[in-house]
């Protein structure tokens, strides 16, 4: 633990010297950052101050002549601090391994955050406080108090206030607001006041649940005394903040109006958006999830303090994928049995509700939006689902099948028309689909936002590339569009192609291959299944071939392929929305025979291959760049009345 | 306070720009008085460091409180050597400054003007000092006369600390016993207190009435101060907010340097500068008059603590300073353009953002209007419903009144009928009673004796 300290721990004692000693031991054990300590004794009647002054060698001990209480003690402690940050720490707080780093990271990454607190736990493992809300009656309520399972709370967020039992504050911010107000008695409410002062000066207070500490409440004060102090200081608090409190519902009796608790929790968020889709996005498994994730990210990135809630219809693999979202400050909700009841508990909360895919619109979007009548409604189609049964209808062989597809197509079409008509703002992934939407829902503004991808600076050329790649998820289900495609490739295209290019290898990359796909595995065909990152495979293949007969919207696999500099050959369905321009005549085939010819040419003609690769990279950089996507999503947000992200700045030094 | 004011003012003029602070020791030597303001260490003056600074920003503004050319160890020293003096005497050098202006601004210049400083100033589009003596020194050293003289930035203190914060800080300092509860005079000292000063301050105290004396220090050790016992020394390591709070709450201030004088002026405080060295007066004269500056303690009592033109002088100084900051912002924009930064693109970005904000605002307003209209429609429906209900209620009330009247009439009739009935009953009872009486009465017919006689006659 060497180097210049950047944090000073400030402890205020009133008796309880053993607690102070234990706390300092816990601090030493679990804190790897260099730090300094100031202990302020608030005139302990039991000699604690004297003892600490004589025996503490690792801390500066200050002694007040009268018991002025927590706020005054903290102020005095900070007057003696010289570091960038100070941490107010109650002696009855027990620290845990790695507790400080997430808090420091939060402050380093978010210049508007002035104070940050860990998740406060009870000794029995239940939640004590994940930040608190302040009611219009001036009383406060700890968020999550008593919850046995902290998991749903484990996303960092801005809070009304966080207890100064353990609170890291920028010293600059602390002084800017004048420190703890001297108007309060001994203890309670001075930290609530500090948080409001910070907000008034443009600073935010956050809770970072990646950091956890255990707090034994009222460790140095009797409960009766605590109640009396609370009553006194509550009076001071309500007198100091009448205007602020007038805007809030009360917390006393709020259990009868649970939706008001959610209002209080999220009242500081610049916007509140609820996104509803099939499952917690699994970006490495395809099925439209990479794009869903990109849309969720756009809403998240536009303002770190916004409330972004993701509602998953299915709990499928939620426990695996939700933590990453929560770490980014996204509230993840899944396993809800009664969505309407859930919505009523948040009645009137959200500014925007975004629903993906028609079945979610019917099952969740309509009932949930009924509980959010004030929200701007966004329908994000991801693809036009009714087109897929229409495509199956074209190739169905039996009357029964055709009838089934016709009915499904009609049902989905009606649902999609209803969804786009219901929406205040619509989002499509391609201009072709947007045109259809404008026809069926002329009153709804339609945006196109496809998918963002970064083109790396060093896309490999022809060197070290070989063989064919098929990329797409299979959902471990027969008769999916990707299964049809890979089977057509294996049965109708590859044999002829291998006649011309003996030994031509095929790698099938994609999550959850179905039995029919796994059966393709052989000496020249590798079925790789899910890979953590498809880019190494896309960067080493010579050609990506997907004879895709069924599908709608832009197929993300081809955008990934373009970004990796891997030319592809596909069908008109596969090439839709990709802005292929002149390259389409080399990449898009109607039949298997035509596909063989296009593949053959790209396997033989290095010059053509290189020209196509460069053209695809250019398309990717202009049409699918993160900047392009961000601009498109900004337009969606603006249409929802949400302020877009501020442009990035330039630099000067003083 | 310099960096706080400068950063705030430049950030207001350069929206979207990132401003970073650099200092000789920066975060490697955190001190209580920095108030938690974080600056990166300037480090050693080396080609790599110079290039690093030049490439990481479009413009540097060099604005130390100490004079350019001064020995840094005097200000930062103690027991360690301080690198980077050249940053304050040579700039970044000709090469790096070709597309990266390094503006010496709001500076003072030491008596011995460093040789490199002249060349550095000559390379810059703008050099500004905060006193005429510094300008004269630069001119004498060979810098052209195009040197701006600009007041101490503390005159633009403005909202650096809000009144409520100053009140809270004073409350806390009083709570700790560092400030008296009663009125007080602040005496700022930068060297040991002399008997002359003590006597002069006591005379001021006599004139002000019952005030206590609070001593604020800069750069002088506590044990060297030699304070009279009745004078109260406030902590030597005060952050900016506390210094401002003390000065703001004082009845009057006897300043010992330009900074305390500038802050007092900006706070609208009564103040006078005691400047025995003759060095501090020069920057002070850029925002105040000669009558607020004295050389000897015995002149304090006769100095003008609150001259009538103080507000005008302050306003004039603020105008000069604002205009200077505008020029720095313009140079920053020019530097951005000179380094290939596309000003038009930046303007387009800002215009785009402005458009987006307006659109978002319009959408919100549209939505608000729709919601408001829906709400008003609901209200209108409710009102109509209410009026209908009121009408029905009136009708019902009328009906009720009518029914009540009818009822009263019926009751009257009923009462009359009952009375008649009662009368009839009474009559009947009377008749029946009479009848019964009659029936129970033994009648003796007057003719009966005759009849009996007659009968006897007939019945012989």
TrEMBL record, chain A:
UniProt keyword list: Transferase
GO molecular function, one term: transferase activity
Residues covered by the Glycosyltransferase 2-like domain: 9-177
Keyword Transferase attributed: yes
Signal peptide: none
Protein name: Glycosyltransferase, GT2 family
Organism: Streptoalloteichus hindustanus
UniProt entry tagged with the keyword Transferase: yes
One Pfam family per UniProt: Glyco_trans_1_4
From TrEMBL, chain B:
Coiled coil in keyword set: yes
Sorted UniProt keywords: Coiled coil
Superkingdom classification of source: Bacteria
Coiled coil: 386-441
Annotated protein name in UniProt: Uncharacterized protein
Natural source organism: Streptoalloteichus hindustanus
């Amino acid at each position: 633990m060497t180097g210049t300290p950047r944090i000073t721990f400030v402890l205020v004692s009133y008796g309880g010297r053993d607690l102070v000693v234990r706390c300092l031991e816990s601090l030493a054990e679990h804190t790897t950052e260099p730090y300094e300590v100031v202990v302020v004794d608030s005139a302990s009647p039991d000699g604690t101050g004297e003892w600490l002054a004589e025996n503490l060698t690792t801390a500066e001990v200050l002694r007040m002549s009268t018991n002025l209480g927590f706020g005054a003690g903290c102020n005095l402690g900070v007057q003696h601090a010289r570091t960038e940050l100070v941490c107010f720490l109650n002696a009855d707080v027990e620290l845990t391994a790695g507790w400080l780093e997430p808090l420091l990271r939060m402050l380093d990454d978010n210049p508007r955050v002035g104070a940050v607190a860990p998740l406060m736990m009870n000794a029995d493992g239940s939640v004590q406080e994940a930040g608190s809300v302040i009611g219009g009656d001036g009383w406060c309520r700890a968020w999550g108090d008593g919850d046995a399972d902290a998991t749903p709370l484990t996303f960092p967020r801005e809070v009304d206030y966080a207890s100064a039992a353990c609170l890291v504050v920028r010293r600059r911010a602390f002084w800017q607001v004048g420190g703890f107000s001297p108007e309060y008695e001994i203890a309670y409410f001075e930290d609530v006041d500090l948080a409001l002062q910070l907000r008034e000066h443009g600073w935010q207070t956050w809770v970072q649940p990646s950091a956890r500490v255990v707090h034994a409440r009222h460790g140095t004060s009797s409960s009766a005394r605590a109640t009396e102090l609370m009553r006194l200081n509550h009076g001071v608090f309500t007198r100091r903040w009448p205007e602020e409190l007038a805007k809030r519902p009360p917390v006393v009796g709020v259990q009868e109006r649970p939706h008001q608790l959610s209002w209080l929790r999220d009242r500081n968020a610049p916007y509140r958006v609820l996104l509803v889709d099939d499952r917690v996005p699994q970006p490495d498994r395809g099925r439209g999830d990479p794009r869903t994730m990109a849309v969720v990210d756009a809403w998240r990135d536009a303002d770190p303090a916004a409330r972004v809630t993701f509602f998953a219809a299915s709990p499928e693999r939620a426990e695996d994928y939700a933590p990453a979202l929560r770490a980014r400050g996204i509230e993840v909700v899944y396993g809800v049995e009664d969505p309407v009841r859930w919505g009523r508990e948040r009645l009137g909360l959200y500014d925007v509700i975004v629903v993906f895919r028609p079945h979610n619109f019917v099952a969740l979007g309509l009932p949930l939006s009924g509980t959010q009548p004030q929200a701007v409604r966004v329908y994000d189609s991801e693809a036009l689902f009714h087109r897929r049964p229409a495509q199956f209808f074209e190739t169905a062989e039996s009357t029964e099948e055709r009838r089934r597809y016709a009915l499904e197509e009609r049902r989905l079409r009606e649902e999609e028309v209803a969804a786009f008509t219901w929406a205040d703002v619509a989002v499509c992934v391609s201009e072709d689909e947007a045109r259809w939407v404008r026809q069926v829902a002329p009153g709804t503004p339609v945006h196109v936002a496809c998918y963002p991808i970064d083109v790396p600076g060093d896309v490999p050329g022809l060197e070290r590339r070989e063989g064919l790649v098929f990329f797409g998820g299979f959902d471990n289900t027969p008769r999916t569009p990707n299964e049809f495609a890979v089977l057509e490739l294996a049965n109708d295209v590859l044999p002829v192609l291998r006649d011309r290019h003996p030994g031509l290898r095929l790698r099938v990359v994609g999550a959850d291959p179905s039995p029919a796909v796994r059966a393709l595995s052989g000496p020249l065909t590798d079925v790789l299944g899910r890979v953590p990152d498809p880019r190494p495979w896309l960067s080493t293949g010579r050609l990506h071939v997907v004879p895709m007969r069924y599908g709608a919207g832009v197929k993300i696999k081809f955008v990934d392929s373009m970004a990796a500099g891997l030319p592809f050959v596909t069908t008109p369905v596969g090439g839709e929305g990709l802005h292929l321009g002149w390259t389409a005549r080399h990449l898009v085939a109607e039949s298997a025979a035509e596909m063989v010819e296009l593949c053959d040419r790209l396997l033989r003609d290095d010059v053509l291959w290189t020209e196509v690769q460069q053209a695809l990279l250019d398309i990717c950089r202009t049409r699918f760049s993160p900047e392009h996507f961000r601009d498109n999503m900004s337009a969606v947000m603006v249409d929802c009345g949400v302020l877009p992200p501020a442009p990035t700045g330039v630099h000067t030094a003083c | 306070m310099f960096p706080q004011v400068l950063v705030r003012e430049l950030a207001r003029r350069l929206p979207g720009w990132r401003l970073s602070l650099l200092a000789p020791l920066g975060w490697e030597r955190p001190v209580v008085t920095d108030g938690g303001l974080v600056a990166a260490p300037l480090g050693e003056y080396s080609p790599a460091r110079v290039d690093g600074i030049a490439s990481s920003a479009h413009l540097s503004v060099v604005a130390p409180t100490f004079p350019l050319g001064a020995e840094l160890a005097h200000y930062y020293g103690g027991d360690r050597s301080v690198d980077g003096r050249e940053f304050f005497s040579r700039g970044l050098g000709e090469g790096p400054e070709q597309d990266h202006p390094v503006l010496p601004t709001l500076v003072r210049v030491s008596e011995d003007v460093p040789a490199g400083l002249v060349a550095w100033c000559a390379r810059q589009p703008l050099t500004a000092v905060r006193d005429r003596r510094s300008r004269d020194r630069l001119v004498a050293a060979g810098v052209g006369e195009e040197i701006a003289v600009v007041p101490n930035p503390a005159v633009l203190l403005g909202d650096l600390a809000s009144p409520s914060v100053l009140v809270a800080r004073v409350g806390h300092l009083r709570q700790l016993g560092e400030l008296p509860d009663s009125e007080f005079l602040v005496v700022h000292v930068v060297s040991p207190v002399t008997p002359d000063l003590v006597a002069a301050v006591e005379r001021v105290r006599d004139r002000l009435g019952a005030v206590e004396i609070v001593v604020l220090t800069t750069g002088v050790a506590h044990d060297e101060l030699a304070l009279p016992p009745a004078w109260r020394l406030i902590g030597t390591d005060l952050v900016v907010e506390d210094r401002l709070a003390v000065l703001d709450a004082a009845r009057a201030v006897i300043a010992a340097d330009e900074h305390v004088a500038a802050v007092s002026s900006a706070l609208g405080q009564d103040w006078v500068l005691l400047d025995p060295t003759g060095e501090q007066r020069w920057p002070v004269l850029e925002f105040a008059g000669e009558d607020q500056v004295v050389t000897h303690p015995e002149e304090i009592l006769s100095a003008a603590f609150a001259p009538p033109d103080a507000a005008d002088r302050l306003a004039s100084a603020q105008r000069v300073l604002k205009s200077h900051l505008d020029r720095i912002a313009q140079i920053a924009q020019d530097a951005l353009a000179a380094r290939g930064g596309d000003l038009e693109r930046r303007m387009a970005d800002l215009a785009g953002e402005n458009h987006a904000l307006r659109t978002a605002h319009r959408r919100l307003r549209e939505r608000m209007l729709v919601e408001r209209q829906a709400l008003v429609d609901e209200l209108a429906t409710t009102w109509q419903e209410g009026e209908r209900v009121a009408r029905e209620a009136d009708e019902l009330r009328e009906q009720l009144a009518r029914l009540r009247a009818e009822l009263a009439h019926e009751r009257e009739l009923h009462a009359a009928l009952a009375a008649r009935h009662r009368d009839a009953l009474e009559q009947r009872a009377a008749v029946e009673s009479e009848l019964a009486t009659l029936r129970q009465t033994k009648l003796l017919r007057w003719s009966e004796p005759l009849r009996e006689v007659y009968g006897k006659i007939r019945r012989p």
